[in-house]
Write a structure and sequence with these properties.
Helix content: 25-40%
Distance between the termini: 58 Å
Number of helices: 14
CATH class of one domain: Alpha Beta
Low-confidence stretches: none
CATH topology of one domain: GMP Synthetase, Chain A, domain 3
CATH superfamily of one domain: ANL, C-terminal domain
Oligomer: single chain
Length: 519
């Protein structure tokens, strides 16, 4: 595989060598390698006919369907830069983002094309229905794009502000895929299955790019948190061996899906990432469905193509004394170090800023040189914005976003530690959904911060005073610090990104502005 330099070349080779082998099953629409290549070539011709060329940005605002693959790789095929967008995001938000980065076109579902064409924000942006890309009438695709160019664009998670657009190269993508294959060698009968949407880098890189690189079939499902039983049913039916999702997916499945009649014994690897991982979640899922240590926590970010670390499945996971889970060692193409606020490398078991460098680290944000310089040093070290430490064996522990850490009496409290403990009460406290912890200034205590815990509840089902007392006692037991306030709020009050991560800074600002009311 070393001579291959783009995923497009891999697709072409597989279409030649195993044309009728299954590449993807996307919501029951089956694509062989030859069918996938034909769809990409047809889409490429259609894009050229619409004036799309090398270096143009093409938004792909499609749900999980076969036309997503055709549009995304069709854009790559003409040398354009595809940017996968969440189709459930408000239309005008997606269009403003595309216009702001001077995108040339946006591919949308045919049934929603009129919604995208209606706003006046589109300017010169061409709105292309996905069915148009499936019926190019004439012409031919241009020569393949250079392998040393841009692969795609990726929105960042936006946990600390508006999402930025990371620029990833073909070299970044191939380096990650090759390293992932070395970390977890695939078997001939491996089958991937995922419900993570392809606009998320977890879904795109892990369950679109890597299966292509490895030549293994992948089943893609439309995400639906209210139908996680369907995910597990399909895992059983397809005898899938590799899957994954953010921690909350495993948590909800363990709590809501019955194991009866669902044989997951073929599963040998389940990635857990995209948000803070919890040992309680992983243990509950594995116990409920009769699995060994198949869940592998990992850590990464869009600026590093996907993951920087991965824990080896099959081994008991490591947790420190505070319940923080090891997310494994770095992949072999990256290096990680922990530094203080001045960039000085810290010793093992010392908490500090997580910095990373290597072949999967991006070159910068699109049209944002100042933002790039703020996170990427001249010698290629990426400041992840997260706090953590490496143990004596090189295992990474992530404590949380640096800006979200709570400064309390000269020490730091990780919101994740509080949130996991409080969320664990849901099994025994009726009406409790989940929580978020932030720090708010307390000038009476010399500028230190109070721990404020916001808890979403179903108000008709809770004893408010009892819940607040229970949450406060839990926080004190876990951190040694009593919370300054426990605020019970209505469901869907805690702000989250489109990927489900808590936006701690937005929550903190809303609390300071008095925008959040208790139930």
């Amino acid at each position: 595989m070393t001579a291959t330099q783009t995923l497009l070349q891999i697709i072409a080779r597989r279409a030649h060598e195993t044309p009728e082998a299954l590449a993807f099953d996307v919501e029951d629409e089956r694509l062989t390698w030859s069918a996938l290549r034909r769809a990409i070539e047809t889409a490429a011709v259609a894009l050229v006919g619409q004036g799309v060329g090398p270096g143009d940005v093409v938004g792909v605002a499609l749900p999980t369907r076969a036309s997503f693959l055709a549009a995304f790789f069709g854009a790559q095929r003409v040398g354009a830069w595809p940017l996968a967008l969440n189709p459930r995001t408000p239309v005008e938000t997606n269009l403003r983002r595309l216009v702001g980065i001077e995108a040339r076109a946006c591919v949308v579902p045919a049934e929603r094309a009129s919604d995208f064409a209606a706003p006046t924000v589109t300017g010169d942006l061409a709105i292309l229905a996905d069915d148009v890309l499936a019926r190019a009438s004439s012409g031919s695709a241009p020569p393949p794009p250079p392998a040393d160019g841009v692969s795609h664009l990726q929105l960042t998670s936006g946990t600390s502000g508006a999402p930025r657009v990371a620029v990833l190269s073909h070299a970044n993508v191939l380096a990650f895929c090759a390293s992932a294959a070395r970390r977890w060698p695939l078997a001939e009968d491996d089958v991937f299955l995922s419900w993570i949407p392809p606009h998320h880098d977890f879904g795109l890189v892990r369950f679109v790019f890597w299966p292509i690189y490895a030549g293994r079939p992948c089943h893609l499902l439309e995400p639906d948190l209210f139908r996680l039983d369907r995910w597990l049913d399909r895992l059983a039916d397809a005898r899938a061996t590799i899957t994954g999702c953010p921690d909350f997916g495993f948590r909800f499945a363990a709590a809501r899906v019955a194991p009866a009649g669902r044989d997951l014994s073929a599963l040998r690897l389940a990635f857990n990432g995209g948000e803070p991982v919890r040992e309680t979640t992983m243990a509950a899922f594995e116990a409920r469905f009769g699995l060994g240590h198949v869940i592998a926590p990992g850590y990464g970010l869009a600026e590093a193509t996907l993951a920087l670390t991965m824990y080896e499945p099959g081994r008991p996971r490591r947790c420190d004394a505070r319940g923080n889970v090891s997310v494994g060692r770095p992949y072999d193409v990256v290096s990680i170090r922990i530094a203080d606020d001045h960039g000085v490398t810290l010793a093992a078991n010392t908490e500090g800023c997580i910095l990373a460098t290597g072949a999967t680290v991006f070159a910068g944000y699109l049209h944002a040189p100042e933002a790039t310089r703020a996170v990427l040093s001249e010698d290629g070290w990426l400041d992840t914005g997260d706090e953590g430490y490496l143990d004596d064996d090189g295992h990474l522990y992530v404590l949380g976003r640096r800006r979200a850490m709570i400064k309390r009496a000269g020490a730091q409290v990780a919101p994740r530690e509080v949130e996991e403990a409080v969320d664990g009460l849901a099994a025994e406290v009726p009406g409790l959904r989940f929580s978020a912890a932030v720090g708010l200034p307390n000038e009476a205590l010399g500028g230190t911060e109070d721990v404020v815990i916001v808890v979403e509840v179903h108000p008709e089902r809770v004893d408010a005073a009892a819940v607040r007392a229970r949450v406060a006692a839990t926080c004190r037991a876990v951190t040694g610090v009593a919370p300054g306030k426990v605020l019970l709020v209505a469901p869907r009050t805690i702000p989250r990104t489109h990927n489900g991560k808590i936006r701690h800074q937005r929550l903190r600002a809303a609390l300071l502005a008095g925008e959040i009311s208790p139930v």
